[in-house]
Amino acid sequence: MLRSVRKQFRICLCISHLYISTIWIFTNVLPSAINLPYSVPQKSSKSLQMNEAASLLYRYGYMDDHNNVNNGNPIAMDQNSYESKFPYPDKASLTNPPKEFKTALKKFQIQYNLPITGELDETTKNLLISPRCGNPDNQVNFQQNNLRQSSSASLLSRLQSGNTFYFKHNNHSLTVQNYTYSDNKRRLLNRQKRYLIGDEKMKWTKKQLTWQIQSYPSHSLSRVRAHAVFQHTFNLWSRVVNLDFIEEKDYYKPADIVIRFGAGKHGDSIPFDGAGGVLAHAYYPTPDNVYSFSGDAHFDDDEIWNDGPHKTHRNLISVAAHELGHSLGLGHSSVPTAIMYPYYTRTWEKVRLDPDDIAGIQQIYGAAKPGKFIPPEPSLPDIPPPPPVTTEAPKRENVFDFCNISVDAIIKIRNLELYVFKGEWQWRVTWSKTVTTWITYQFRDGPAKITYYWPALPKYVDYINAGIERHDAAIYIFRDRKFWLLLDNMRMKPGFPSDGLPLTDLGLPSYLKRVDSVFLWGENQAIYIFAGEYYWRLNENSGPFGKVISSPDYPRLIADTWQGVPIPTQAAFTALNDETLFFEGTNYYVFDNIAMRTRPGYPKQASLGILGCMK
Hints:
This protein is 16% helix and 22% strand. It is an alpha+beta fold. It folds into three domains: 24-190, no CATH class; 208-365, Collagenase (Catalytic Domain) (3-Layer(aba) Sandwich), CATH 3.40.390.10; 409-611, Hemopexin (4 Propeller). The strands form eight sheets. The protein has a six-stranded mixed sheet, covered by helices on one side. A hairpin with a 7-residue loop joins strand 25 and strand 26. Helix 8 crosses helix 9 (316-328). It is elongated and about 85 Å long.
């Protein structure tokens, strides 16, 4: 047993039962790995050069940068900076590598129970290039008998008897008692739970944390399913720890833990390296959140993500649970069955926290109180990808100038993305929140034919006039004198006729030839329908499919209430800040909900991110 008197760094080592679960590991992760009947994306070990190995050892904390300790950054320095430190310009240096490199290799081999050769052998290469978390294994520097080291994890994995460890930046030390180990005793120590807790200051000082997903996977995993994954993983931790996690749904409010997907250079100083290497990284909490990325978790969008076990795709549940452990203050564990084990493992059972993970997180924050509330995991119907069809899908090309375009309708779907309609075409736009309060929009895909993407609609619906998602996630589509109510692009709402219903079934007058626009007003979250010079308020819960509020309350003149709004309106959309935009041709107006009129300085040209303009 070790006991540290150091207040800012606690290490708990507990000899306990060996915890085993069925895990499939990448074929070349460990020598004892099970051979898989399929191949997985992975970088080749054959081409791993010494300078590349040095880069990985440096990145994962086995070669020191003594100037960066516990700053909350998952990697102390830009990953490319190794080139100046380890250039290896000639063959002589390849055959006679520096002592620091050999020492780092030995540390790495000790950490993962590999043969301790100090050489870049095939076993070591295979593990070095295996998919894993981008956070280093060794985060806290210490001195052993005046020899500088940074291997707190190796301290945990090898009890070094009779040595005194002096911790940098503080006056405390711990001394390990002299032991004479039998072979059996050493085997027992190798079976210990070895979670790692960093500096005590690097934890949250409040019990209620907010989280927010600001960008999503761009392929393979839908936004709805990705959202469900993160709610599930927060619940995994919430069930065992005295913390509450609340999703911050307002994009204009900051969140404690921000989740983003990005590829390569993605907004911080630590770019991802493409598929098959680093899967994700996360930032530890810092005192008073002095670091802008404190607690945030980033995932490599070059990976193909799935919300469960898959032959070739990455299991986002497993990786997300690991990164959120870092967001809460846990370091890496050397227990292969632990969520906090740094190398990617695949289990074909339900992802669970290991006793080692639970012991570590409860050491920081305490155990969950009995009967605590666990948020429900969402089960909203998904918007599936386009289905297989006999006709060839249209090629992705710029059919329009998205920075100078008039549109027919904009629909916000699942509060996750925008569907923009123009004639027979539709395209999708996503958004994300930056470290400021700005919202940035990204063109996602399209244009695609409406008939291709919305197979639930009749084939003759090759354009629409308006559309909106209701509060129950059903979607109205308006075209000429008819409307439809769908669960998603694949399914009609049960009981709704596939050929649509007349506008009169919504309570609208029979003389209407079309609906011009429909939007949800931010002030009262009610749906309004504009047609000609009149407008109506829709009651979604009236009748089987909703009805407008009737006379004498409605209809009302648009000009009497919505001053400055163009008549007729071509399209309308309420943005994330609850401002409603009205479109007329290639121009738009912004409505002031307080003054109840359009804002001064409008109309302006609709060069907007919400329409797909990326200028």
